[in-house]
Amino acid sequence: AQSVTQLGSHVSVSEGALVLLRCNYSSSVPPYLFWYVQYPNQGLQLLLKYTSAATLVKGINGFEAEFKKSETSFHLTKPSAHMSDAAEYFCAARFSGGYNKLIFGAGTRLAVHP
Amino acid sequence: GAVVSQHPSRVICKSGTSVKIECRSLDFQATTMFWYRQFPKQSLMLMATSNEGSKATYEQGVEKDKFLINHASLTLSTLTVTSAHPEDSSFYICSAERATEAFFGQGTRLTVV
To answer: Do residues B56 and B31 make contact, with C-beta atoms less than 8 angstroms apart?
Structure first.
């Protein structure tokens, strides 16, 4: 079955440290992949997306993600965490034949401490 | 980027009443919009796909008669929670499609008392 898995429901990093949020997908055909950020009581904001062009995708706020077909992964990274990065992050996929539906991972709550 | 506006952002209603939530694409036309429900500290659960000029497509387990969706124009979809009960309290989010990208509304916090 087509699915999106985010490893780690909670990630805690120090300010200035590397941020790594993991996302894996399950499907025989690579989907379009997205990372979204959600702040409390707000909608989702797109950080970046992979749509079969470059495998290393740069997004907003210093985030980037690399698509690795061999690992069926699309992990999100940021070299240096800021306090303002504390939020909920969702990985999502649009699978072939899925009628444009977005399938979301369970989410990862990122905490940044001083 | 494209803007999707969702209204109201918060609503409190009495049990047994109906509540309407609006989702508007402000600067583009959207033939397809999606409605999600999000429980506290959980992910988004797709409720239905709203198609302009036709009936919505509901996900398995979502009550069509309780969650009425209308997509009467290319810029507006509405979700009406009918005969609301406390268990319907949740965060509801809409999204509108443009090209390969989904743009999300700000969400609506519904509390049924």
So the answer is: no
User: Which residues of chain A lie closer than 8 angstroms to B34, CB-CB?
Assistant: 101-102
What pLDDT digit, counting tens, does each position of B53-103 carry?
A: 888 999 999 999 999 999 989 999 999 999 999 999 999 999 998 877 889
Tokens of B5: 């506006």
Look up residue A70 and give its DSSP letter: G
Q: Note the pLDDT tens digit of each residue in A55-97.
A: 999 999 999 999 999 999 999 999 999 999 999 999 999 988 7
Overall size of chain A counted in residues: 114
Q: Which residues of B27-64 are buried (b: 16+ CB within 10 A; e: fewer)?
A: eeebebbbbbbbeeeebbebbbbbebeeebbbeeebee
State whether A45 and B109 contact (CB < 8 Å). no
Task: Kindly list the distances between the CA atom of residue B23 and the CA atoms of A90, A94, B64, in Å, as whole numbers in the listed order.
Answer: 21, 22, 18
**Whether B34 and A101 lie within 8 Å, measured CB to CB:** yes
Cβ neighbors of B99 (< 8 A, separation 6 or more) are: none
The Cα A35–Cα A23 span in angstroms is 9
| Model pLDDT for residues B68-82, shown as the tens digit of each residue | 999 989 999 999 999
